[in-house]
């Protein structure tokens, strides 16, 4: 066993020396192969292409030297520890440079590491320095570094995509909001206009309102998905008159088929984030008319039980399958019914779940041919009593 340890250590030491002494040669061989095999690398400058991978080889040789001096039974955990440090040191800058090229994808990053591993191991084999033990040690280091590089690269890509979508949504919101603000004051004059004019005005306002709502929902959804949180303002309010106003406004769009099942003469008060609740309620009402029956009523109800309040939106007609119900509150899942009109993306329903979480409650869906479709938001009335007006929810 002692003889095997000395042999292994000797080979590791020689391998470390050969990698260190021939680092420029190895990088030249790697660069040639990469430019031939990876399309985005063909037009990359040598400085960008080699950046930090040469330093990676330098530290790889130093790590092999350290392992050569380590007793055999301690080499495996030390190999893992060293490889993690290697990957941590260089992957952030390496992947950032690759991300600056719009032609690089995650598989290109993996291919570059694989090619470098092949160049190193082929070189050591040619010199008679790669036995099973040395190969396992080097492969483990490269595997950990490759996985880390892939994770960091993808994380940087996701961040760039979030920033791009957020920028587009933000730029869209301003002109839409201006159009909405400019058109609303003439609504009194439109009421006296011919029916065709009123119809086209209403269609235009609905489209503007929906576009503005979508841009706000995209921005909020990106904040939730990126774990940066959303800042909410809570205030003590009676939900009944707020929902009554929501229903009256929605009737201008959808007509008298929208019914509010309000508790007569009762106040239902608590600490709520009203902007968020109004938005998700409008979204549920819109979905009910979009996917529900063309003739049956859509009802919105509110009920109080102990320390909680529930808001429900019900429609008949097309139902949601059990498979779709499982993921319907997740971001970018289809929220439509199971017919040819389905295909909407679940940004709004993500906010339904988020709104319930912000109030210490939960969202529930019941959908069947017998009972129709009902979305219910359960909220705790006093959950945000001590939140001092705002809450950043992750």
Kindly list the characteristics that best describe this protein.
two-stranded antiparallel sheet; alpha+beta; elongated; Globin-like; Heat Shock Protein 90; 62% helix; 394 residues; 3 domains
Helix content range = 55-70%
Gyration radius from CA atoms, angstroms: 31 Å
Shape: elongated
The CATH homologous superfamily name of the largest domain equals Histidine kinase-like ATPase, C-terminal domain
N-to-C terminal Cα separation, in Å?
A: 55 Å
What does this structure look like?
- The protein is an alpha+beta fold and 394 residues long.
- It has three domains: 2-160, Orthogonal Bundle (Globin-like), CATH 1.10.490; 167-225; 230-393, Histidine kinase-like ATPase, C-terminal domain (Heat Shock Protein 90, 2-Layer Sandwich).
- The protein contains 13 helices and nine strands.
- A five-stranded mixed beta sheet has the order 3-5-6-8-7, covered by helices on one side.
- A hairpin with a 3-residue loop joins β7 (362-368) and β8 (372-380).
- α6 packs antiparallel against α7 (132-183), α7 packs antiparallel against α9 and α10 packs parallel to α11.
- The longest helix is centred in the middle third of the chain and has 52 residues, at 132-183.
- It is elongated, with a radius of gyration of 31 Å.
- The model is unreliable at 73-77 and 339-345 (pLDDT under 50).
């Amino acid at each position: 066993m002692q003889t095997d340890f000395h042999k292994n250590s000797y080979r590791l030491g020689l391998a470390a020396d050969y990698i260190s002494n021939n680092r420029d040669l190895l990088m030249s061989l790697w660069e040639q192969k990469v430019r031939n095999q990876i399309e985005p690398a063909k037009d990359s400058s040598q400085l960008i292409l080699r950046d930090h991978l040469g330093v990676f080889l330098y530290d790889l040789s130093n790590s092999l030297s350290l392992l050569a001096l380590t007793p055999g039974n301690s080499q495996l955990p030390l190999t893992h520890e060293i490889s993690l440090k290697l990957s941590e040191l260089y992957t952030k800058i390496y992947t950032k440079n690759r991300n600056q090229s719009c032609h690089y994808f995650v598989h290109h990053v993996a291919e570059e590491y694989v090619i470098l591993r092949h160049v190193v191991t082929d070189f050591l084999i040619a010199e008679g320095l790669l036995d099973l033990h040395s190969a396992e040690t080097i492969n483990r280091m490269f595997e950990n570094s490759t996985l880390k590089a892939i994770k960091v690269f993808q994380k940087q890509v996701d961040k760039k995509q979030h920033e791009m979508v957020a920028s587009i949504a933000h730029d869209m919101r301003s002109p839409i909001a201006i159009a909405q603000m400019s058109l609303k004051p003439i609504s009194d004059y439109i009421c006296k206009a011919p029916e065709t004019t009123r119809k086209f005005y209403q269609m235009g306002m609905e489209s503007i309102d929906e576009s503005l709502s979508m841009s706000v929902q995209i921005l909020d959804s990106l904040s939730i998905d990126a774990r940066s949180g959303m800042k909410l303002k809570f205030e003590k309010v009676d939900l009944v008159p707020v929902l009554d106003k929501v229903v009256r406004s929605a009737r201008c769009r959808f007509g008298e088929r929208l019914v509010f099942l309000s508790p007569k003469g009762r106040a239902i008060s608590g600490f709520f984030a009203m902007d968020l609740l109004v938005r998700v309620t409008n979204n549920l009402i819109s979905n009910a008319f979009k996917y529900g029956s063309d003739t049956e009523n859509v009802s919105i109800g509110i009920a109080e039980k102990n320390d909680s309040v529930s808001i429900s939106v019900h429609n008949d007609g097309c139902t949601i399958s059990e498979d779709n119900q499982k993921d319907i509150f997740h971001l970018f899942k289809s929220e439509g019914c199971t017919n040819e009109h389905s295909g909407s993306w679940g940004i709004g329903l993500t906010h339904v779940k988020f709104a319930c979480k912000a109030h210490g409650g939960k969202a529930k869906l019941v959908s069947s041919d017998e009972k129709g479709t009902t979305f219910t938001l359960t909220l705790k009335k006093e959950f945000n009593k001590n939140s001092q007006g705002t809450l950043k929810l992750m």
